[in-house]
Amino acid sequence: MEEYQDHSLSGRVFQKIREDILNGKYKENDELRENTIGRELGVSRTPVREALRQLELEGLVTIIPNRGAYVTGISRKDIWDIYMIRSHLEGLCARWAVQHITEEQLDALEETLMLSEFQMNKESGFSVQQVAALDGRFHAILYEASGSRILSHVLTDFHNYVQMARKSSIVSEERARKSIREHRQILRAIKERDAEMAEQLANEHILHVMQNLKKQGYRAETAEK
Amino acid sequence: MEEYQDHSLSGRVFQKIREDILNGKYKENDELRENTIGRELGVSRTPVREALRQLELEGLVTIIPNRGAYVTGISRKDIWDIYMIRSHLEGLCARWAVQHITEEQLDALEETLMLSEFQMNKESGFSVQQVAALDGRFHAILYEASGSRILSHVLTDFHNYVQMARKSSIVSEERARKSIREHRQILRAIKERDAEMAEQLANEHILHVMQNLKKQGYRAETAEK
DNA sequence: AATTGCATTCCTGTATACAATTATACAAGG
DNA sequence: CCTTGTATAATTGTATACAGGAATGCAATT
Question: Which pTM was predicted?
């Protein structure tokens, strides 16, 4: 599978707006004006327009014809739903990874786990951001290792989406440690080519994350405003 | 939730190209030139560009920077993967639908089923296209009824994607009849508010479709060129 | 004071113009 | 005959220009 790199403005603008939404610079229901953004990024409206259209399809932006583009709100229920869906798919992903994972990917998983454990054992305390990034990386490698571009695509989208409402990343230290231990178990199962075990552990892993989320008021019927 | 209608060219161009890909007018790896398409549709390159960028995100088109846009190939493995994923999610959808479905949606499901059964019992033989459309409609209503825009979005995307490779729509009459009976069972379970049953039936329904697919050479490791 | 009508201004939607990149054709050299 | 270099054409990427809705402000009216 060949990969092509995109040096175009269009792509960079897309990424930039995306980040700014995820970072919270643009908040829910903020209006995204083509001219304003274009001026900020030093480009014309054209690339901005394209980026906004794409972001709409990604679900991050809502476009009302002839009126403008607005940041799409992500409710707590949305996030809950995503985790619920993930709890049905991460297991499938792990199962497939058992068959398709490469040595390089196994090494990469091992590395992120080592780094995670290192972070958690630091005297000076751990960086929440770092640990979150490593968590994301672990799952991203696993998605890739599933050997299914379809499954990988879906799960990656979900990850990005959840990342947006970073409210959800408020995890306790206890949960972080437990999460890493669960990752280690999953990796072990994959190494031992135990598909059944890997699947079960991966699904349970998400369910455990959800239990933590529930404490923070996330659940199925949370309407929120 | 308000809905806004889009009378713009951009939207129409998007739909048109989309259809042409799904209809098979543009085939796998065909190059989609902005000028050519624009001339055909009587618009400038701008709306065409936007449409192509969106289609890329939908997975129907692959854009190589500075080179062009190409119709994305969908392998048999992709389709297999999608059904595999659906077999894990349709059940969840049915389960949620038990809680959220409205009377109107129940009626709509009933109607599609009646029409399907009518089609199958016609003396003159049934229209494959009609039955396929009704099948799609049944599932679409169910997705909507889940009350989860996230789940609905994912499953709808999958449906569109599979529809593209219409190879998969080659179903036997026997399978068509069985499929409709399974739909009826699912509807009954939902009406009786039996979430457990609805979930199980919906997942099994997809697995049955997959069994039929397998006969046609679809499976996990089908590389196909 | 609230509401309607209208003009102005702003913003989006589309077309066109120009720049940058890539593909193509063909000739020169090995 | 195949490779390489170069000029030309074709195509994409971006900026700008113009047309058409939508929002805003203000005055006139009730």
Answer: 0.84
